[in-house]
């Protein structure tokens, strides 16, 4: 509806349309006068998991009360308790058309020629009811994407997958377990976990994306991460923004990520081996 209205405005009153759009696009820097839009958790659901739907939609509302503030504090965004810049809906389904199959949740944005206009989060109860213990983490991960994309607006296009995913995993707080799973899957060999950051987005690379964000935090700290996001908002790519804030070229940064990741994976391997050893002794 809102999209159509804006397109209609542009066609009929281009000057007024541009004023409306520029207020939306530049709202990051406007003050309390900007209008925030409350996320809309849809009450319509007609699948097989009615009980989970009732419980999970209640949980979504509870989590949003404090998670939005935490995301804002971590990444340097303001005002998300009051709402989003763009319309944002959360919808439950059975099965979904997620770009990566069998994910419990995904968020996408609908855009037109003028930029991002609305976002939707789809929560797939077929998957989420099979792994109920993962619900909070999955939701916080997706909510982080939604907030980042909402704040960056049309500049979200500059985000590269490793940065976008790494930040979401970092905020959701389950990065260590991604890394541990990957290391165990690789029979405790660090090398298979180490991947290229430039390659296509793949869930098997998520542990590396998270380790890259950790390496970045070790270098620039949380305030540095906020500055990098601010630079992306100003039109830089994450790689350019990292160079601006840390002074490291993209190649030099990747070398640091590699050595950081190798160090962390070896530390984790030692811990796992020690735990296995004491288990064996205990028997
Ligand atoms: Zn993600």
Provide a brief overview of the structure:
With 283 residues, this protein is of the alpha/beta class. The protein is 58% helix and 9% strand. A four-stranded mixed beta sheet has the order 1-2-4-3.
**Tally of discrete structural domains:** 2
Strand content range: 5-15%
Number of helices: 10
Query: How far apart are the termini?
Result: 65 Å
CATH architecture descriptor of the largest domain: 2-Layer Sandwich
Mean pLDDT: 87
Largest sheet at a glance?
Answer: 4 strands, mixed
What's the level 1 CATH class of the largest domain? Alpha Beta
Oligomer: single chain
Cα Rg: 21 Å
- Strand order across the biggest sheet? 1-2-4-3
Shape: globular
Bound molecules: zinc ion
The parts where pLDDT drops under 50 for at least 5 residues are: 5-27
- Please state the structural category: alpha/beta
Amount of helix: 55-70%
**CATH topology tier name of the largest domain:** Zincin-like
- Based on DSSP secondary structure assignment, what is the total number of beta strands? 4
